[in-house]
Amino acid sequence: MNDVLDENIVSRILYGQKCGQDGDHAKAIDVFKEILSSDPNCPEAYTYMGESYRKLGKINLSIRSHKKAISLDPNYPEANANLGASLIQNGQEEEGIKAINRALQLNPNLAPAHLNLGIHYHRKGHLVVAISHYDKANNINPSYPKAQILLLQAKEELDYRNTTYSKESLPNIEYSIDRGNDLLTKEDYDNYIEQFQELLKSDPNNSELLELLGIAYSSSGNHKRAIDSFLNALKKDPNRAASHFELGLIYYQKDEYKKSIEHYLNSIKISPDDKIVHNNLGLVYFEIGELDDAYTSVSSALNIDPSFLLALNSLGLILKAKDDIKGAIKIFQKVIKKDPDLYQAHKNLASIYFDKHDYNLAIKECLEIIRLKPDNLKTFNMLVVSLLKENQSPLAIEMCKNVLKDNPHQREINIFLAMAYEYEDRYLEAIDAYREFINFNSTDANAWSSLANLYEVTNQNEKAVSAYKEVLQLDPTHEQAHNYLMTH
User: At residue 43, what are phi and psi to the nearest 5 degrees?
Assistant: First the structure.
């Protein structure tokens, strides 16, 4: 990092950072570009500009900016950490983790680097590792609100995975299976399974060992044997709440909701203060449409812990299903206030606003979702439709083009670009966009139908006939294609 910076440049950098903190990333990028026009060798401007690009979902530009910063100053910790976060967001996980670890070698007390590693492992489900990094970020900077919130959330998620097992209870095994730390390979789990089985030969009635065996089977994806192990554990000791809980999870994943409910209820009888079990039971009831029971169960979880984000999000879903839209909005807004990066809450709010035709609010939530999950095509579709509903087709076109420029592999975006062109009656450009998509996915009957319709509108009848024939190959019941071909 530059030790000496012109005073004017420092003030401009601070102004650009403030723009970014206020959410005006486009303005921030303009400020940093202005700085670079007068000082092209300023690594700070490049890396802060890269962060604004990342927040806008322009990952390739973000990576390019951070790499330029590092080329100017290889020992700039923040640039290495920011590059790592962008690489991870781009799916280049191994390179991203290496970059963040390099940042921590340069500055072990870089709280954002620990935070970004925590977020990565949290999303992968490796909660123990995530908690470790959140904790470090929190210790380095105790006033870091995001680290505090995510630390609490990860601990909440880990609650139901924790057991009372200790190394002392298994003296012959260096026990390290932790349901929240799935850094173990299938070979590792096979190893543990073999050791548990060996121990059970000499102690076949050990319900704890049977439960551990079930967890190892479940973690390795062998649900059939996991179920057998948990049921055997319960035969030996009917009061094993964790076995009932794990069976509830497995049966839910297998869509066997009646059995899932039965085991969750049994788990609650044994351990009535487990908020995770109450919440999960509520979600099973929700899945089968038993909304009153779902509401009761999730409310029980919130009685145990009123700030339990997962249960708050569940409550919002239930209220929405019960047509209490105002109540649902209030709950999701409460969740987002506690954790602005909780993707599910933004997604649920966007859906509500879209259904209510509050398109401006839907646009706002869609942008938040795309910030968190840039490759979410369903959300991008909702965003484009909302923009068109608000007569913002130029912005929709610009956004589609930017995504395609930064991420050419996301050719599905051409569908949304075509919709926006069509809205503006730019039919020839819409045809080109549909063709681009069909070159990528030639089996989409809807895309062929839209293309055929545009050929029809532009009086390209031969091409329309050819396209409608493709539609019928893919969907023989397509009424519009039949009607057109009967008359042409």
Answer: -65, -30
